[in-house]
Structure prediction request, 476 residues.
Amino acid sequence: MPQTFNCPNCNAPLDPSKEGAATMRCPYCKSSVVVPKTLRPERPQAVSFSADNLPDLDGLLEQEDLKKLQEVVAQLRLGNKIAAIKAWREAFDTSLKESKDAVEALDRGEAVNLNGLQFRSPDRVTVNRVNTAPVPPPSVTISPVTARKVAVGAGAAAGGTGCFVVGLIVFILLVTVVPMFFAFTSPGGPLAEPWSRVNPFGKTNLELSFGGEGTGVGVFEDARHVAVDNNGHIFVGEYTGGRIQVFDESGKFITQWLARGEDVNNDDVYLVGMAADRNGVVYVTVGGDLFRYNGLTGELLGEVLYSVDDFNYCDRVTVAPDGSLLTVWSWHNDTIVRFDRNLNANLVIENAVSSVDDDDEVERVAVDGAGTIYALGSWGYSVYVFRPDGSYVSRFGSEGDEDGQFTSPYAIAVDNQSRVYVSDFGGLLVFGSDGRYLDTIAVEGYVYGITFDDQNRLYVVTSYDKVLRYSAPEIP
Prediction:
């Protein structure tokens, strides 16, 4: 008589589909379930997972579940622990702390016991789409019935055959040319960039575009950061390798240098944060350290230090309008530290986001001219607002596909009107300082980095390895 057990997700009775298998798919809720080891007599040992035993799990786990674990290992080998934690949480129903503990154990070379863990079912997985191609907008169609009414109305008003011809032409335009125009000028279309330069209905117009994929000068390999100084210099940083290229205000290449901190011969470098002040000093975060460089020469000027429980690990950096630095120091906690112009810490907000939502932490920060701090959470799909003295005010944003909601937020910046810009699929979501959703600026490609210059012009770097500059947005 076959033995059964209940699905931990929907409580349906399950009969193991093959003897000795470690996991099976529930036919009712489609979730991946770990089979109790008492029902796996040929494999009574615990199913464990480490970075080195992935081949051994082939046959024990379903292929789609195995791929989830492969993604965790891939992110760890890239040195991106934050992404590895996200991948783990997308694979299992585990808390932030449990996910961190598992990834830290894997990073130390230890094995993690999978028994008792439940893979998320396909309809519950939150897909990380930062590196996927942007979804093209739906084509615009116009009902032929509506178009026919327009044509007939025009012919009746003219009262003749000639007007009927005019109506027929209007009909043809409505059902053919207009949809084609919208398709060609939408983000990703062949006329998207020219139209964004002249669009009279846009909230902002494209002024400058340069770059593309490549390893030579003027092109980029995984560009993620953009910054500007008061003299119009544009600094573009690549995530892998730490290469920073410098351009003038027209996008002409000037020079390039490597941001690798004190270990200049280390090729295994990941540039996770970059910002520039008005005088052309470029701040970068690599390997958990925060360094200062002369932006035009690449000369290392020093390191900015702040100790959190005798542990220095800086993730992000941004420069405030008054010249102060806003930084995020993490891994053991999510702490926001502000430095004055003399690089003295004058504000510390410990556990900034996790004190509000214990399942979230700071991903990036921005600050407006009044000193208000805006922190984008890693997993909470929210922006958290703090006063200049560090006291918490409120949060806004939520997960979803409606206006003002996030599906995969990544970068954050604030313009000189205290409007908050957050990158997501579909472009840049714009909010008022009070959290009200205002508008969305369509951008070709996914936006990795955002900044503004003194004229409030908008600069972005996209997944197409292109730098785009837009005129100052006119959003009420």
